[in-house]
Amino acid sequence: MKARPVTVGGLAADIAARVGKVHATRVAVDGAPTAGGDVLAARVVEQVHADGGHAVHIPAGGFLRQASLRLERGRTNPDAYYEDWLDLRAITREVLRPAATGGTGRVLPSLRDPVTDRATRAAYLDLPAGAVVVVSGTMLLGAGLDFDVTVHLTQSPAALARRTPAEMQWTLPAFQRYDNEVLPQDIADVVVRADDPRHPAVVL
User: Is 202 in contact with 3 (CB distance < 8 Å)?
Assistant: First the structure.
């Protein structure tokens, strides 16, 4: 596949333009933690603001299932990381459904602290009509989450392994399974090569 090199700022501008064109209110930035999704999502929010709109960034990491459920099969089980990590119902209930066109606009920015495993007690945000919610996280596609625009940051297996810290190498089989079963490069609206997140390239 051909790819067009672009700066992170240019990529954010392209995504914001696409979001504005289709009047999207729910955007996914999907990719491994090493792919720079949180940074890109924040830049998209900045660009939407610069274009005169309103947007918020909500990391999916604030919606992990409680540890007793996530770690039921052990602390380093890649299948659990793939199947049990995110609280999909909470993301839908607290973020995606209220952020949809015609929704209440009252979204929760986080539910559970991933370190303490306690409720964050975050206050709800009341968003104006047409506001954009950008959710960044891992393995967001193919899980039944309802997004209007989806961006997938892809990394080669070698780049992913090289950038993943030693203590998280156990997660690598989960990403391979995700690629094999979900085929995120085939279903995302925008696919970006992010072997080096500082120098992305849009797959054409």
Answer: yes
- Whole-angstrom CA distances from 76 to 100, 111, 160, 182 are 35, 23, 17, 22
Q: Which residue has the tokens 């891992």?
A: 138
**20-69 residue pLDDT tens:** 999 999 999 999 999 999 999 999 999 999 999 999 999 999 999 999 99
List 60's β-bridge partners, or say none. none
- 193: three-class secondary structure by DSSP: strand
Burial class (CB in 10 A: 0-12, 13-18, 19+), 90: middle
Dist. CA 71–CA 183, nearest whole Å: 26
Cα 40-43-47 angle, rounded to 5 deg:
135
Contact indicator for 61, 83 with CB cutoff of 8 Å:
no
> Which pTM does this prediction carry?
0.97
